[in-house]
Amino acid sequence: MTHPHAALATPEAEHAGTTLARTPLDALHSHLDTHLEATARVWFRRALDEAAAHPGTHGPISVWELRLAEAGRRCGSRYADAARVLILRAARADPASLARVYFQGTAEERRAVLHALPHLVSGPDALPLVEDALRTHDTRLLAAAVGPYAARHLDAHAWRHAVLKCLFAGVPVDEVAGLEQRARADAELARMLVDYATERTAAGRPVPRDLQRVLTLTDPAALTDPAALTDPTALTDPAALTAADPDAPTPHLHRADPPGAGSPRRPAHPHGKES
């Protein structure tokens, strides 16, 4: 029988931003115990014991924070994120501790904090961390930010911006937890998607394939402004719906003008700012 969590060890799953956030912590622990090499497994168990024995802050930096920094070297990049999430759980990291690790840590440590949020924080206290991640151009950080914690706690306005940011940055919408539930019958999200598709089409750029997928979850017929709808063929033409723009790959992640610039109806900026 296939190991129920074996997918966590594959490079494809490693790229998936919300895999760790959606996996029960006990399953993560069992997975690492099974797959880590002997030396790494000994280090990992000791790190958990240290974190459990000395939670909170002790001196300038806690021992468990040092272990977070070591995880990549000790466990390898494939398992480091999971190890960090479990160390955070063992340390009983509260929102203040998570914020300290996030804002002082490396991109890898920030990603682990975002993965850990749905496991460790029940209320909206950690939303500033998600909001910060959604302002970045780091696609792996973005993917981690739109996990179950964001699905539960981002308000409708911020969540729509997060979806648009994923489309803008090329993060697969499979990473967006709760997408089907939150996008269903969302006429405002449909308007934003249509505006973005209109801008892309007018600029001679392909419309991201994922945009059409999200649009079908909404209810475009409920839009109060029919003039906002572009020609439907522009959204459904297979030639226009491609996964990437061959003429402008990653560089336009850093473009200064927001989606909608030059359009009569500028959609919300995917970075979380109104345009």
UniProtKB/TrEMBL annotation:
Residues 225-251 have a biased composition (Low complexity). Keywords: Isomerase. It comes from the Bacteria. It comes from Streptomyces asoensis. This is Sugar phosphate isomerase. InterPro entries: EboA_dom. Residues 225-275 are annotated as: Disordered. One of its GO terms (molecular function) is isomerase activity. The keyword Isomerase applies. Residues 266-275 have a biased composition (Basic residues).
